[in-house]
Amino acid sequence: MGIFADRADAGRQLGLRLEYLRGGDAVVLGVPRGGVPVAFEVARALDAQLDVIVVRKLGVPFQPELAMGAIGEDGARTLDKRILSLARVKHEDLQAVEQRERRLLDDRVARLRAGRTLDLSGRTAVIVDDGIATGSTARVACSIARNLGAARVILAVPVAPADILRTFTEADEVVCLATPRQLTAVSQHYRDFSPTSDDEVALLLEAAARRAQRASSPSGNPGLDEDLQIRSDGVRLQGHLNLPRSAAGVVVFAHGSGSGRHSPRNRFVASVLQQAGLGTLLLDLLSPAEELDRANVFNIELLARRLTAAKGWLGGRPDTASCGVGYFGASTGAGAALWAAAEQGEQIGAVVSRGGRPDLAGPWLALVRAPTLLIVGSADHRVLELNRGAQAQMRCANRLELVQGATHLFEEPGTLEQAAVLARDWFVRYLLGEDSAPGTEPVR
Questions:
Q1: Dist CA 104 CA 98 (whole Å)
Q2: Pairwise CA distance, residues 151 & 371, whole Å
Q3: What is the rounded CA–CA span in Å between residue 237 and residue 328?
Q4: What is d(CA 100, CA 42) in angstroms, rounded to the nearest whole number?
Q5: φ, ψ for residue 373, nearest 5 deg
Q6: How far is 211 from 45, CA to CA, in rounded Å?
Q7: CA–CA distance, 261 with 427 (Å, rounded to integer)
Q8: Cβ atoms of 339 and 325 closer than 8 Å
């Protein structure tokens, strides 16, 4: 049974299977919401255009999670007659559900497309979702692509039931990594199946558009977007550096609780920082072997040492040597970020903690000199208490910001975007020296 770390991991694996399409005319179409993070990685692997193909599931009225069909753009619709019969869904109930979902679909198309038109005439459409349960959504998505003129339709998903794929005739080709006989839930095949928001979808589409623009830039300096390795303590740490043209600041991400450079939340925040002209370095602070020992996740001194090594690595590169450097820490990574910042003094320009554990920096808190922003969800009561205690020990310029209604993982609609904007404004102010964040004057 295939298990994926998260949607990004699934997308990278799918991209490897689809490499034969690289250099062709393929357009990668993610099914919002969960299919777009997968499609983003597929499009990157194929160096292909990324867009969305919007579909809405028609849920049984008394059991909305059970699909009785799906609708899509251009009036496309498919119904599951077996489910309709078993659930005894009345025609008027079906109409009511479809009318409601059609309104939501039209709104989402307008928001995500932002005026763009989707032209698939004569091209290969690669439909990507994060998994298939009943197949209704995928069937409609393939039908839409065909109606929009696609010469060839490929369905690419990480996981789908074998019996569904055997009867799937809407695509010319199906690529699937895991085909269990029975599929209770797509989420069972992911270690992290956190919800994807419309905000994240929009940012991924914007990031893909910027990537395409950089690739076609006539300038000799299109910026960097590359995987890399950094040596520390005799091990090679895997990372990813995104460096916009003429970047004056780079933010190093300190992931927490065993999360790595593929963390969807930190990738989301990184994309917001990149739009503001900041470079980002997402780094696995532990090697694969070290991750097997859970105690290393809480070895704050070790994690801080790795962040210091990342700062040194940036200082040794011609393109980042003059950049201001900041740390963004989440969960236990916040403790490591503050520990490392305290050790390096004025070499670190700013620190931001999101849902973090700054208290884990212990006595180093009083030695931090970098302006520090603590972002906490108002409903994350225990962590909020720990942040207030940590703030009382800090002597640097600092601020505690509450995101209303957010819990520890910022899964509530719009809350992660709010946290990302707060982080962006803080780093822009202290790394780039721009007063673009009115009302964020630091307080003690």
A1: 10
A2: 55
A3: 17
A4: 32
A5: -110, 125
A6: 12
A7: 20
A8: no
Collapse the DSSP code of 302 into the 3-class scheme (helix H, G, I; strand E, B; otherwise coil) and give the result: helix
Q: At what angle do helices 415-431 and 198-215 cross, to 10 degrees?
A: 50
Instruction: Report how far apart, in Å, the C-alpha atoms of 255 and of each of 12, 93, 264, 329, 340 are.
Output: 20, 47, 11, 6, 14
Question: Rounded CA gap, 166 and 161, in Å?
Answer: 9
Q: What is the pTM of this model?
A: 0.59
Chain-centroid distance of CA 294 in Å reads: 24
CA 44 to chain centre: 14
User: Per-residue pLDDT for 444 more than 60?
Assistant: no
pLDDT at 33: 87
CB atoms near residue 14 (< 10 Å): 25
Contact present, 34 and 197 (Cβ < 8 Å)? no
User: How does pLDDT run across 111-143, given as a tens digit for each residue?
Assistant: 887 767 778 899 999 999 999 988 888 888 898
Question: For 373-425, how does the pLDDT look when each residue is reduced to its tens digit (9 = 90+)?
Answer: 999 999 999 999 999 999 999 999 999 999 999 999 898 888 888 899 999 99
Which pairs with CB-CB distance under 8 Å and at least 24 residues apart come from 78-84?
78/136, 78/139, 78/140, 78/143, 80/134, 80/136, 83/134
Is the alpha carbon torsion for 406, 410, 413, 416 positive or negative?
Answer: positive
What domains, with CATH codes, occur in the chain?
A: 7-198 (3.40.50.2020), 219-431 (3.40.50.1820)
Task: Return d(Cα 66, Cα 57) in angstroms, integer.
Answer: 9
Spatial distance between the Cα atoms of 291 and 284, rounded to a whole number of angstroms: 10
Q: How many whole angstroms separate alpha carbon 384 and alpha carbon 406?
A: 11
CA 24, chain centre distance (Å): 26
